[in-house]
Amino acid sequence: MATTPESGISNRARGVRGLSLFLSSIQVYGIAIFLSFGVIAAISAILGYPVFEVLETLVFSSFRSFAGLKSTIKVSIPLLFTTYAFSIPFKIKFFNIGAWGQMLLGGAMTAVVGLLLADWNLPSVVMIPLLVLTAILAGGVFALIAAYLKADYDINPIVSTIMLNYVALQCVAFFCTARGFTDPKGGHPQTMLLPSSAALGFIGGIPYSLLLAVLAVLLVSVLINRTRLGYEINAIGYNPVAAQSYGIDFRKTIMLTFFFGGALAGLGGGLEVLNIHNRLLVGFADISGVNFGPLGVLAALVVAGNPMAVPVASFFMSVLLVGADRLQRTMQVPVELVFLLQAVIVLLIVITRARLSAKR
Amino acid sequence: MNENRPPRVSPIFPQGLACRGVVGARVRAGRMDRKVLLELKNIRKAFGEVVALDDVDFSIEKGGIHGLLGENGAGKTTLMNILYGYYHMDRGEISFEGSKVKIHSPQEAIRLGIGMVHQLSTLVPEFTAAENIILGTEGRRISFSTGGERPGILKLCEEVGLSFPLDVKVRELPAGIKQKIEIIRALHRGAKLIILDEPTTYLVESEFEQLLKSIKRLIDQGITVILITHKIREVLKSCDTVTVMRKGKVEGRIDRPEMDREKLVKMMFIEKEIKITESALPRVQLPDCRRSELPVLRVQNLAVEAGENGVGVHNLSFDLYGGEILGIASVSGNGVKELVEAMIHPSRLKEGDIRVKGESIRGLSTLEVFARGVFFTPEERIQQGILTEGSIKENVLLGHQGEKRFLRHDLFVNWEEAGKAARKTITEYGIYTPSEDFLIKRLSGGNIQKVIIGRAFVSQICLLITHNPTVGLDISSVEFIFRKLVEIRNQGDAVLWINEDLDELMMLSDRIAVIHRGELRGIFPRNQFDKYQIGLAMIGA
């Protein structure tokens, strides 16, 4: 508008813009979290629980003891992977609601291959990388089905990924009860234990899968910010028409984003099997009865699907989940209250963001 | 085009049913008595730190066409959006028909009798013209049928001399007809004042002539029209008064008798020295230039299937030499879009051949075509030309992401090199921005186009294909682009310049090829340029 090249938009103005962006996102999250804790306080007061104790347990259970922190980390690892599984395809504006299925299939294939290889007596250095690779491929290829359906038949990935979740769910149920895999003494649909060479193990109570999670964070950040492929993914997300006009392959990009997303979810599932349960069982990727897949979608929506913010979002969600678990055990507060809180937080963040941006 | 087809008449309802907003009766009386219709006083509007309107006064009389002239970003559209209730002013007052009014929303503006036709169509593409016209006026009725309103609409169309098919989905209609529908929609809601925001951006010359005729009919019916434009020649051709804006302020108002080109140019660009031609284009010379021995581009018997809303290309052959600007004159929807597509995405090529410097590009990917030294700037600047949410740096890199120079180990983007290229483009093209990391969508239209053109010269090229590069740009940006095209040609490279503005083409092309319904209708050398002949060829006569 009324400006001249000489005066220029100064760097100061740009600095102010950056700062105001930062302040506005603090504003968004601050207001939303404050309001949702208000909602929780109100509901627990109505239900007759001591409000401050509820809030305190919810937020600080993760930080009061090392055990609390350990279980938060344990929860945040699979959640991180499913949050990525949603966020990466979301970069090009597609919804991968299939992290659930991709995670389940990753876990299932890991257990199946692990059990099939049990008699070979492979050493851990061979066994574990092999099974990790299996998990990655299983999740990635499973997600590719939805990408292919979108690219060649224009089928909305929301629909196909949701449907495929049930396929994966049945696969898990099948292997947990199939002859040759099932553990008849289990009393719960589950497979036999994997050979000990397939166990990842813990260090000081923290699962080794944390290393792979950290590696995933680094790789995703390099992929998105540094690589040519990342640039192409960003470009398609910014404007698919322009990106294609200038030679970016839409089909290839959609396939790859879904593959990466699915692969990470599959890896998350595989790590649950290798590190936590050492076997496949129905509900192996659940917390308090809810699968990490949908929780990942929630966590991703909290940060508007920004892959750079995924670690923070999934850790934040894990804090709430661990707090909820503790609430349930020490104060008999139903865990549903916390799922309610999470839904309220996500909704309020989305609403606050929309309202603040609508003002200008 | 079906614009001359008479509207179909509903057999169910005879003529003469009541119609809201019948033009004649209510306002005809007030014609020409120079009564002030609208007065905006001390309007101020700031967006953050940017003052878009700085104490603007604007007033017009009843009747006639009132121009609102200024460069892009002068504040014309902002001012009108305030009048139409889209934006809220920081301070100031509006009086309409002699009484002070407060307009908080477009609904209130419509209720007062103010209608606005925006630059981009606001019609629902999946609805027919008739449905679009009555949309929002159907009140509390449950059914959404256009039957009852149809005679009124037809009468209205007849009164102002606009005709278009009422029952075709708007999606299938060209831009010129969409505007007519929007005008009728405004009249149907009882508009006494119609604001046209840059109506000619997506119109060709002949469509503008037609629109002008209809506007004159409106004026005869007592309607007042405000024409927002940055084209001096449109003002000279049509307006009774003109108010010139510059940098958020009103420079002054001139009435018909005192209007002349020099005066308007001076008011629009006080500090800039821009020479303009008869048709109010920036004057840029086309010096003699040797053209190359061999063609840079050879299109042979090209046939492309029709895309959406197009006719495809049939048996098209032409040569383009180095040191030459070949203009392509064609009305939109006649196959030029498909021609450009075929050159940029030759992997989809079915029949015929395209050769660049003698080598066929059949089956190559877009990036491979770019690697041969061909680059393009697309027709739709925003939709097709830029990564809307990306930075300038990311946008300059677009199309070059596969080049060795911008890659490390073939896998990583060399962002330092990309930043360097972006900074070079910013300095060379005078793009007005704080840094290369600035979001491109925050730039003005002219600066966005400079990024798109600058992107083409990041690497060595031998052929630039550019589609309507000057649409909607102000005169100083147009001048810049003209100079750039001539500079490329003078370096011995080739330019394929597709443009819907014949005046522009005739000023700077070495030859003009005319394409109508996907076929070549002749190539005119510079010494045989004749606006009438070329115009005839463009419409296939």
Entry summary:
The complex is a heterodimer of chains A (360) and B (541). Chain A is mainly α and 360 residues long.
CATH class assignment of the largest domain in chain B: Alpha Beta
Q: Helical region count of chain B?
A: 18
Spatial order of the strands in the main sheet of chain A?
A: 1-2
Please identify, by name, the CATH architecture of the largest domain in chain B: 3-Layer(aba) Sandwich
Biggest sheet architecture of chain A: 2 strands, antiparallel
What structural class results from the helix and strand content of chain A? Answer: mainly alpha
Largest inter-chain contact set: A-B, 30 and 46 residues
Strand % of chain B is 15-25%
Which structural traits does this protein have?
heterodimer; A: 360 residues; mainly alpha; ABC transporter involved in vitamin B12 uptake, BtuC; two-stranded antiparallel ribbon; two-stranded antiparallel sheet; 13 helices; 2% strand; B: alpha/beta; Rossmann fold; 3 domains; six-stranded mixed β-sheet; disordered N terminus
Would you give an account of this structure?
- The complex is a heterodimer of chains A (360) and B (541).
- Chain A folds into two domains: 66 residues, no CATH class; 267 residues, ABC transporter involved in vitamin B12 uptake, BtuC, CATH 1.10.3470.
- Helices cover 74% and strands 2% of the residues of chain A.
- Chain A is built from 13 helices and four strands.
- In chain A, the strands form two sheets. A two-stranded antiparallel sheet of chain A has the order 1-2. Chain A has a two-stranded antiparallel ribbon with strand order 3-4.
- In chain A, helix 2 packs across helix 12 and helix 4 packs parallel to helix 6.
- Chain A is globular and about 55 Å long.
- Chain B is an alpha/beta fold and 541 residues long.
- Chain B has three domains: 245 residues, Rossmann fold; 138 residues, P-loop containing nucleotide triphosphate hydrolases (Rossmann fold, 3-Layer(aba) Sandwich); 81 residues, no CATH class.
- Chain B contains 18 helices and 22 strands.
- Chain B is globular, with a radius of gyration of 25 Å.
- The relative contact order of chain B is 0.11.
- The N terminus of chain B is likely disordered.
- Classes of the chains: A mainly alpha (360), B alpha/beta (541).
